Amino acid sequence: MSAAAALRVGTRASALALWQARHVAALIAAQPGAPAVELVHIKTSGDVQTDVPLWQVGGQSFFTREIDRALLAREVDVAVHSLKDLATQLDAGLTLAATLKRADPRDALVSRSGAPLAQLPRGARIGTSSLRRRAFLARARPDAEALELRGNVPTRLERLQRGDYDAIVLAAAGLARLNLESHVSEYLSAEQFPPAVSQGVIGVCARAGDEATLRWLGALDDSDARLATTAERALLRRLQGGCQVPLGALAGVHEGTLTLQACVCALDGRRHLSVRGQMPASVAAGEALGVRLADDLLARGAAELIASERTARAVAEP
Q1: Any idea what the CATH number is for the domain that residue 283 is in?
Q2: What DSSP character marks residue 210?
Q3: Whole domain around residue 6: which residue ranges?
Q4: Active site residue 85
Q5: Which of 77, 85, 104, 107 is catalytic?
Q6: Nearest to residue 86, comparing CAs of 202, 216, 253, 260?
Q7: CA-CA distance, 123 to 230, in Å (whole number)?
Q8: Would 139 disulfide with which of 3, 104, 214, 269, CB 3.0-4.6 Å?
């Protein structure tokens, strides 16, 4: 096969993003008759704006927008994302072609001393770039000081080791994919720390109608991951939230039943709204369940809680 016929896979250049892209490339290559795969490194706005907290940056899709634009411009054929970074409404002309089997969706605490969250000293400095994690940290440890933390996974670990923080919170899946599980001090329960929507799932996008590419991606789709993330993303879409909303949600499939739980939490941890529901597992049911639980949250005041948090942050911005 000529080099021109290779599938061009767009990806960020961080260690974790490259692991994900290479994993997708390997899954494609394992199929009989598969084309060659070429990785194309693309810098995103999230990679460039490293000196500003993401919750102070307007808009969404900080780590995916430029890759998806390259896909629409036919500069690449496939886009590989951490699905939690991908907007719930895709650009016209794009399709979420595959959701890979979900890795551990939980958050993980990494502390300098190895102590779990409950045993960290009073006033512990905990690093995270996520409003969701800040909110649930405030709920679990109101005495702790949440500090901004940006950078790729190795950089965050280096900053912890040099003493900038007493602990940091990262996605368990990212640590596992980089063989860094030995650093984990505690896996935070999904009940106490509901994960980000779609956390632990790799999403693969392509151009709608590009059958020559889609034929190689369909086999990568995991049905349980598709069902769970459909429910989670439907809920997030209904709430009109993004990575700047302190929302955690997790769905799962067991014996033909799809279950979804979600929680919206104030940044100070003092107020939170939780919902849980289940339906027979199907993609349509996942969409309906996500919308239903989002409507439940909205009826109980989630919109006002989210709006008040956004207003407070807007006033606090430098």
Answers
A1: 3.30.160.40
A2: -
A3: 1-102+201-221
A4: yes
A5: 85
A6: 202
A7: 38
A8: 269
